[in-house]
Amino acid sequence: MQLFAFGINHQTAPLDVREQVSFPADAMEDALHHLVSHRPVREAAIVSTCNRTEIYCSTDKPDEATHWLADFHQLPTRELEPYLYRLPREKAVKHAFRVASGLDSMVLGEPQILGQLKDAVKSAEHAGTLGMLLHKLFQRTFFVAKEVRSSTEIGTNSVSMAAASTRLAERIFGDIGEQRVLFIGAGEMIELCASHFAARHPKRITVANRTVERAQVLAHRLNGQVITLNELPDQLALHDIVVTCTASTLPILGKGMLERAIKARKHRPIFMVDLAVPRDVEPEVAELDDVFLYSVDDLADIVKEGLDSRQGAVAQAEAIIDSNVINFMHWLESRHVVPTIRALRDQAERYRRHELERAKKLLVKGEDPQKIIESLSNGLTNKFLHLPSYALNHAAEDERDDLVDLISRLYHLHPSE
User: Fold this and answer.
1) What are the angstrom distances between the C-alpha of 323 and each of 144, 148, 279, 327, 328?
2) What is the pLDDT of residue 394?
3) H-state helical runs in 298-337
4) Which residues contact 169 (CB under 8 A, 6 or more apart)?
5) What CA–CA distance (Å, rounded) separates 190 from 200?
6) The domain 2-157+309-336 belongs to what CATH superfamily?
7) Helices (H) and strands (E) in the chain, counts
8) pLDDT at position 305
């Protein structure tokens, strides 16, 4: 079985493709079970974020594993094929290290991806699809990410999606302190956005979520109020800024709902940030004159601000990653000889037991202990040397020199001396 990774991300696929192959958190374990039971895959972990969907696995048939992604989402393979990348062995290792270190993110150095990778590992552990290979890979991945972030300036001046959303709102409205902000969802991304907007002291903060209890926790922290998702049609018009990021598989804000909200607002503009994948807002909403709608991909130019100040750390981070890739591949290659080492040790143990039992019987008979020890050592020596000696004596002419060199290297011999 070999290490293999494949998937799509913000660099290879547009948002409308990425949202078709995303995995909701509550469906992750079922997807993992489906993968390992329907394809020749022994281990698997799925990373699914707004910017990427990636599968890390152990398989001898990578092509069958990649076909699973399209099949699972009921998509024609040919539609997904142009956007897929395939990363065997050390390329998969390096990619995992770069992703965790923030080098492959839309926001260079952003820290959220590390937590998302850890969530993916937890899901694989719960599903029982995380074996020795992937466990070792991700443990090393987290170690490398920590080393990169502690040894370089890769995260300095990093502009997060949350910060970018706030900056963009300020460009449109100027003073956020006069605006009413609605957050839809109560997950990590919404919490990050809420903290940035709350620091600008908006006129009012409202949190809408499927689970009211979770919304109340966030709203209490922000000194805001709570509404249910069912109240959105009536409440939407009362807000100037809408930030949404839920786990819904279908849009929750449609064009018709926004048209009614704009009419009720007498065409005062609404600024909307949709950070969800799949999207929470129907793409057609962007066609409305009084709606400023931005998706995760639309924020790319803003999050690149401050990039120059972090580029100097990239080379240093890449050097750390390359060194660790070499170390990991050395460990991985060593795993191929483990069965041989185990068989060699088992054979040596059989020799030991045989000679030890013979020595114990002689002791019971009252034989001289000194002679028994001598016989024990001779017996072990003869058994260990029999097979290599036999191989040398019976080697074909064209392989004898190679065999002599090999045995000399194994036993640190110097025949010429």
Assistant:
1) 10, 12, 39, 7, 9
2) 84
3) 300-303, 308-334
4) 176, 179, 197, 241, 271, 273
5) 16
6) Glutamyl-tRNA reductase, N-terminal domain (3.30.460.30)
7) 17, 10
8) 63
Residues 282 and 144: beta-carbon distance below 8 Å: no
**pLDDT classification of 157: cutoffs 50, 70, 90:** low
pLDDT, tens digit, 9 for 90 and up, residues 169-204: 998 888 899 999 999 999 888 998 999 999 999 999
| pLDDT over threshold 70, residue 1 | no
- Are the beta carbons of 31 and 46 closer than 8 angstroms? yes
What burial letters (b/e) apply to 288-300, b meaning 16+ CB within 10 Å?
A: beebbbbbbebbe
Q: Is the peptide bond before 278 cis (omega within 30 degrees of 0)?
A: yes
DSSP secondary structure letters along 72-128: HTT--HHHHGGG-EEEEHHHHHHHHHHHHTTSSSSSTT-SHHHHHHHHHHHHHHHHT
Region 161-303: CATH code? 3.40.50.720
Q: For residue 137, which amino acid is it? A: L
The count of other CB atoms within 10 Å of the CB of residue 417 is: 4
At 24-58, the pLDDT tens digits run 988 999 999 999 998 899 999 999 998 899 999 99
Question: What's the gap between Cα 155 and its chain centre?
Answer: 19
Contact 242, 182 (CB under 8 A): yes
Q: How far is CA 96 from the centre of its chain?
A: 6
Task: Give the CA angle between residues 16, 17, 20 to the nearest 5°.
Answer: 95
Q: Residues with catalytic annotation? A: 50
**Domain positions in the chain:** 2-157+309-336, 161-303, 342-403
- Alpha-carbon span 217 to 129, nearest angstrom: 34
Rounding to the nearest 10 degrees, give the CA dihedral for residues 387, 389, 391, 397: 180
> Phi then psi for 201, rounded to 5 degrees?
55, 60
Q: Residue 211 phi/psi, 5° resolution?
A: -100, 110
